[in-house]
Specification:
The structure is a homodimer of 163-residue chains. Chain A is of the alpha+beta class and 163 residues long. Helix content of chain A is 44%, strand content 19%. Chain A contains six helices and five strands, in the order H-H-H-H-E-E-E-E-H-E-H. A three-stranded mixed β-sheet of chain A has the order 4-3-5. A two-stranded antiparallel ribbon of chain A has the order 1-2. The first copy, chain A, is globular. The structure holds zinc ion (4 copies). Chains A, B: One of its GO terms (cellular component) is cytosol.
DNA sequence: CCTGCAAATGTTATAATGTTTCAAATTTTG
DNA sequence: CAAAATTTGAAACATTATAACATTTGCAGG
């Protein structure tokens, strides 16, 4: 899959989204999973924002599409997308964001700007290593890691109040 | 503050709770904070379980005390306790747990057993270091870290189905 | 093509979690 | 004691998520 732009720097976001959708179709095909119209549309909506989107935000967008959707529709699509590694849930925000490393096996680390709301997903192998070490030092078998850092992105450190 | 027992190993839990309360009183006194009866009771309820307790679980306990409480009562107490470093919120569970390092400056890392529900709070300086490194490598100013590991505790790896 | 099954979606209702607002009581301070 | 600030009570409301069951759609075998 192709490289991604930094969310809090300007870039051609339409290309960003369409690349994500193309990647998603490839990934689903490889996994014999059905990226149905609803699922694809939800993925698109989430990708159109570099900021995490709540399930009910997605729902509102679907409704304004003219699609008569109810909460389970959205949650089911989100479950599917998560299961196939296409989106992540940000637990500290109750919101969802497109995975920038779809297809690669990884543990995401999320840098969440409290000022502008943008989120950058990193893969930090050294962090994962230390986490595993700390867990196994306690005899704990780690399965899933939630790692979310709130703070200020580079842009918001220098020019507060944008966006 | 005194050492703590491992939650998923048997220990004198009453002593564990009363020590936590004693520590809390000391900490609040030092910070000129008022550990009112409601706040202390909420802390006690949370400590009585080594497993994270939801806000509405706390509310139910208060009600069965005969205390006529509403959600804001609980959330306010929990806010206070978090602000003074006496409890942590576990974002991936929407639940709260007593801090085992109250009074020490620390970033908690939580090992959450998906089988028995017990949670162990660790301080892992190497992890914190790597997290800081990864964040500052992106020019990000990290403020608060959410680090929650779900998996199997030592006990549940060997004897499934207890508790 | 039809039939029957499994997966996906629609629909309604409800549960679980968290907040806003304003009033009353309590504690602190001068 | 009186004024100010903090804490608590109470009611309504907002947000996030799931349960349960009906219906439709996609697909494989006959
Ligand atoms: Zn990812
Ligand atoms: Zn920012
Ligand atoms: Zn702690
Ligand atoms: Zn366990």
């Amino acid at each position: 899959m192709s490289a991604r732009a930094i969310p809090y720097r300007p870039h051609n976001h339409d290309a960003c989204v369409s690349q994500a959708l193309t990647d998603a179709r490839t990934i689903c095909q490889r996994q014999n999973a059905r990226l149905t119209p609803i699922r694809e549309r939800v993925l698109e909506l989430i990708w159109q924002s570099h900021k995490p989107l709540g399930a009910y935000d997605v729902l509102a967008e679907l409704s304004s599409d003219g699609h008569n959707a109810a909460p389970p529709t959205v949650y089911r699509a989100l479950d599917f997308l998560q299961q196939h590694g296409l989106v992540h849930r940000i637990a500290s925000l109750n919101a969802f964001i497109g995975c920038t490393h779809a297809g690669e096996s990884h543990t995401g680390m999320f840098l969440i700007c409290r000022a502008c709301g943008n989120v950058l997903e990193l893969t930090a192998p050294e962090v994962s290593t230390e986490v595993r070490k700390a867990a196994s030092g306690e005899g704990f078998r780690a399965e899933t890691t939630t790692l979310e850092i709130a703070g200020l992105c580079p842009r918001c450190q220098s020019e507060p109040g944008h966006d």
